[in-house]
Design goal:
Helix content is 42%, strand content 21%. It has 472 residues and is of the alpha/beta class. The chain binds nicotinamide-adenine-dinucleotide (NAD).
Amino acid sequence: MTEATTLPLRNPRTGQSDGELPVTSAAEVAALGVALRRAQPAWADESIEQRCQRLSALADALAARREGFLDTLLADTGRWHESQIEVDGTIAAIRRWVQQAPACLAEKPVQQEAIPFIQTQQTWVAFPVVGIISPWNFPLMLTLIDAVPALAAGCSILAKPSEVTSRFVPLLREALEEAGLGEVFALVTGAGATGQAVIEASDQICFTGSVATGRKVGEACARRFIPASLELGGKDPALVLSDANIEHAARALAWGSFVNGGQSCMSIERVYVEAPVADVFIAALVKEAAALELAWPDPKQGQIGPVIAASQVALVRNQLADAKAKGARALTGGELIDHGGVWCPPTVLVDVTDEMTVVADESFASVLPVIVVADEAEAIARANNTEFGLSAAVFTQSPERAQRVARQLQAGGISINDACLTGMVQTAEKQSFKLSGMGGSRMGTASIRRFVRARALLINTGTASPWWFPAA
Ligand code: NAD
């Protein structure tokens, strides 16, 4: 069977195909890998300050094309407000790395060891080619979030964004050329086969996407003995405890569950609320949810954009049907709306059980099941009763209770009295638990250490060797 050379592009607002995406063949990806490997040593030889100058130039080049990026992201994702946050947040993240990277990568001076004539020096060696494979929900941000620290570390980059949302690629190539990064950053387009070719051509992989694909990526990397950072799916719980500020919790959770139409890895997808405050919390949440409007027909009006990926439509529809068949009630929303493209109105579900797919599986949509629990212990146990462990949220007015509960949750980022802070605050280190991923922290300064290998220089300053073996 001959491989497709193009893939159809779909506009999620209309549901219509309105363009074609070129598919980079495996041979082309391999050739790019060779060119990147050839260019990388000179890039790594530049000082960290020189590399950061070019990253600053990249931030400038993105800012100069802000409107263009917004247009491509709007065409691919159908949403406007989140695209602004995405472009501005990406530029800000690059500027933050420019500030932080030099200190992170500074080599330590030569150390005297306990043995008087032995000294050591710790050095870092960048991986030559870092492959990036990214998803469709924040296409630009999730293509650059790992690429920028890797570039700062001295790696070259081979990136493949999602085939669902690659319209920004030509503009990003232009910005990379302008910043003088064209030789060390190649972008390819296509679906899974192109992704596999990226793995074959790389020395390390940063993958963001579903657990199912992450498993394939992890297996392919293991076969090649190359490290893989896997940032995967979640089913993030929020715990609303009896002493929470209920109005505040409802507002935060409506935002944390429905922003970007729920299509964020750190979206809240389950709420466990203690019985004494359940009725008042549910009423407040429903009020917040019902006040949100679809961003239709004008993408600049309303808060809820379309379901971005066509493949998501059936998944969400099936989860809603399964929940209703098993006795759940939608207090607002509950049905997908077809405007050509498909919208999921903010949906609050009650009378849900753990057997429903909407409670057990990732939804990646603006659907929020609310489960009433007897007490804090039940809330913690049920929040942890999942194969995922990305993030979570706890609402209580007691700082001690917040600490006690947060420390028992099996997830890498816990927002306290807010939701989804892990998406907004990128300085604190966090790792994924359970099937939500593996690898070092993508956040905080530790992120950059993923892209270098430690090399020790072990120096004998003048004693005859082998000094460690008794003379004959
Ligand atoms: P996906 O797994 O379907 O695809 C992700 C990427 O992998 C795409 O670029 C795709 O082309 C590529 N791919 C597909 N098959 C491949 C293969 N066999 N080998 C190599 N690459 C392959 O995910 P998606 O639907 O694009 O994104 C949604 C998922 O991403 C959700 O599960 C969401 O939770 C997750 N996500 C996680 C984070 C995080 O930081 N943890 C962030 C955003 C999204």
